[in-house]
Amino acid sequence: MSTRVKFLGTGDAFNTRAQCHACHLVRSDAATVLLDCGPSALLALKREGLSADDIDTVLLSHLHGDHFAGVPFLLLASVYDTPRKRPLTVVGPPGTRERIDALYGTLYKEISQRPLPFPFHCVETAGGERIELDGLVASGFRVPHQEREVSLGLRVELDGKTILYSGDTGWTENLVEQSRDTDLFICECCFYETRVDFHLDYPQIRDNRDRFGCKKLVLTHVGREVIAHLDEITDTISIDGMEIEI
């Protein structure tokens, strides 16, 4: 199998364009990985004929609901819908296990108190380290999105391919550095006219496009301002269900 990326959820927190919340599937011979797991992730998987049991690892960029609130539904499906026995690993910023447990307990109080019938591991990182898992190497780096909690950009290496995922971020020169020698850069693009320090706008991306060291750039997490300027955007904008080979 070649390395393929399926853009399962390409919408923002408000499901702009009626697209699912952040969730991108990376499949290769080495591993099957989710980059973020928004609350509609299980729906997005099933639309593509996939199940929670197909996932080896979930990599979370940060702990905003539209990026991680699908994990409890993956756990629930792994117990009752497609019973799982093999391990599931979630990698995320500090506090990931606590937040997942709290959300799962809120959504399914009694069920969450029962032991999971499969090994469930959480690996927490504040960035700056390589995490070696079965079939892949992941590294996170801090990006400017939240004031107090950690938000990460993610760089993933598997089967000789390298993918950079910005998560949610304002402009940082680290995006230029991290994009070097990557096969794919999945970059958030919330705004067009609006400029803030915790999300990207398309003019910022366009002005720095030639500095990125990626072979391919795909925009995601687009907001309504971006949609209003589609005729002015020359880079690829992802939509739910789009798949590319790298």
Structural commentary:
With 246 residues, this protein is an alpha/beta fold. It has one domain: Ribonuclease Z/Hydroxyacylglutathione hydrolase-like (Metallo-beta-lactamase, Chain A, 4-Layer Sandwich). It is built from 8 helices and 14 strands. The strands form 2 sheets. Strands 6-5-4-3-2-1-14 form a 7-stranded mixed sheet. It has a 7-stranded mixed sheet with strand order 7-8-9-10-11-12-13. Helix 3 crosses helix 4 (96-107). It is globular and about 50 Å long.
Number of structural domains: 1
Sheet with the most strands, sense and barrel status:
7 strands, mixed
> What would you say the CATH architecture is?
4-Layer Sandwich
Give the strand line-up of the largest sheet.
6-5-4-3-2-1-14
Summarize this entry quickly.
Helices cover 22% and strands 27% of the residues.
What attributes does this structure have?
seven-stranded mixed β-sheet; Metallo-beta-lactamase, Chain A; globular; single chain; 22% helix; 14 strands; 246 residues
Topology diagram in text:
Blueprint: E1 4-9, E2 23-27, E3 32-35, H1 41-47, E4 57-59, H2 65-68, H3 71-81, E5 88-92, H4 96-107, H5 109-112, E6 120-124, E7 130-133, E8 136-142, E9 152-158, E10 161-165, H6 174-178, E11 184-188, H7 202-208, E12 217-220, H8 224-227, E13 236-237, E14 242-245
Parallel strand pairs: 3-4, 4-5, 5-6, 10-11, 11-12, 12-13
Antiparallel strand pairs: 1-2, 1-14, 2-3, 7-8, 8-9, 9-10
Helix pairs in contact: 3-4
